[in-house]
Design a protein that fits this description.
Elements: H1 2-8, H2 19-44, H3 50-72, H4 82-101
């Protein structure tokens, strides 16, 4: 989350590659929030079952994505975007669905 915050505070991340830059940044948005949802799922599944942990991970990630877009609206040269928030949430949703549909873990007692 700190890495996302750091890059969100940068005034301009445009590489000058036009459409390729835009598509690349949207794919990175999708992937970074998918990763964040998986990390939350991994952290929360110690206390919750996998499905609840996946849902909670999605909710936390979607809320953080909203605060990130709000934060960007205060950074010169940046703007908060509902479309970016939707892309972030789509990444989190795909990762959360993957996590929720994984087979139940088997505990090995030694």
């Amino acid at each position: 989350m700190a890495v996302i915050f750091f890059f969100s505070a940068q005034p301009d991340l445009n590489s000058g590659l036009g459409l390729l830059d835009t598509i690349g940044r949207k794919l990175i948005h999708f992937a970074e929030y998918a990763l964040l949802a998986v990390l939350w799922w991994r952290a929360l599944r110690t206390k919750l079952d996998d499905r609840r942990a996946a849902l909670a991970g999605f909710v936390v990630t979607a809320l953080y994505a909203a605060t990130d877009e709000f934060h960007q609206s205060f950074v010169e040269g940046r703007a908060g975007s509902p479309i970016d928030w939707a892309i972030d949430c789509a990444g989190a949703a795909v990762a959360s669905l993957w996590a929720a549909r994984r087979p139940a873990r088997v505990e090995v007692r030694g």
